[in-house]
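debug: dumping io for the single-chain case to check the tokenizer round-trip. Nothing else runs in this session.
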Amino acid sequence: MATYKPVVVQAVPKLGEKVTQDTVYWWGYKTPVQIKEFGAVNKIDFSPVPPYNYAVTASSRIHIYGRYSQEPIKTFSRFKDAAYGATYRDDGNLLVAGSEEGSIHLFDISGKTPLRQFDGHTKAVHVVGFLSDKYRIFSGGDDYSSNLWDIPSATEIVSYSEHTDYVRCGCASKVNADVFITGSYDHTVKLFDARIRSSVMTIEHGQPVESVLLFPSGGLLVSAGGRYVKVWDVLKGGQLLVSLKNHHKTVTCLCLNSSGQRLLSGSLDRHVKIYSTTSYKVVHSFNYATSILSLALSPEDETIVVGMTNGVLNVKHRKPEERKEKSLKRQPTYRTHVKGRTYMPKQEDFCVSKPVKRVLRKYDKLLKSFQSSKALDAVLEPPIRLYTPEVTVAVMQELHRRGTLRSALAGRDEKQINLLLTFVARRVIEPRFTPVLVTVADMITDIYQPVVGQSAIVDRQFLRLQEAIGKEIDYQEELLEVLGMMDSLFATFTKATYPEENKSNGLTETVQTNTNN
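debug: decoded output
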């Protein structure tokens, strides 16, 4: 008996993912380290000075982690309720955080107890930060107010009550020590100047604002809210430059890389998108296990830290650069390791080949035992039908070659007919599958024509198949018309390039035009 030959699945070349410099750069991180926090991570902030520790705000604690430590090296836990938005000062010596009870706490990194406590908000304070002069703090709370505080005297300088909903994000200008920005759930972003008692600019984002970011130059502002990330030109009075809609759910955090040439956004859709700040196109993306609340990049992009809603901290470190000059010194066992690798058998040698055990797939085993219907059922299962349809079509082609395709398609119930027609209607328009699936569609129509009208589901699938084939025929007719036009144009161009010919007395003479004056 002849040996069974497995079904040959037609290989179709696939377009590989385009590998760019960004792809190589952002792939250069090690396997992430997972750290479990006590609650959802609402803020991550890197110290701007070496050794670049980072503060993680979750639940009622602020944990300080070293760049490569998996356990906190310091903890601030003097909060009665949840803590929010812990942020470093530019010199890395002080840390400020908001709280659920409405107070603002200022910590010295070398100590544990708060240096200052600022009371003035009547509800939770979610956003705090330092102005670039290092001696003032701005804050925003759920009482709709944005306040400015003096650190030495621990007093309130000015309070702005222009927002009409929760203030949940903010940032300070690195260029002007008097300018800071807040974003609110009232869909607006407001720019404040500490020298003026009211906002100097209001930008309408159109969605509750979850995060704002000011470029280091101070000229461009990025706001995130809803599914949108929008870039505004501050120097032109808040003119909208570009609106990005690459996320499927609410965007919760923004971040710039160390060079300022890449913008990162994290979202509840579990993705981090990386944009070029010149073209504002997505150049790379990361996928995470759960929804993302916070995101931070260390200086020189050495570490990327993402905080998620389930309290997990995802930390990725950049891989060290490979040594270009590898040691040429070989170990003593090298000769033994490669011995016999280049040996060529001689004529008198007897070669013993190890038999290779061939493992058949489920559909091949069924075909081998002539169970046509079950073999077709095996390739109509979701993993094969959805992700490798070429296998399903190859088995159908083999059944047709054997002459058992009609019997495999017959005798099916409403659910199985619906599944078959859905697959055929979806894939029949693909050129690589069309020859086989047209035959399958003809057989299904012949076999189940008597039951048309007895099932609304089957009737609907037959109509879908008819519509798909009708559209494909229309496309083919349009393409033939275009092809005819192109042939006519090519023929015209070809005639125009030939020299003019004159036939006389059965001889072909080339007419040359002489221009003799």
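debug: round-trip ok. The two ends are 91 Å apart (CA to CA).
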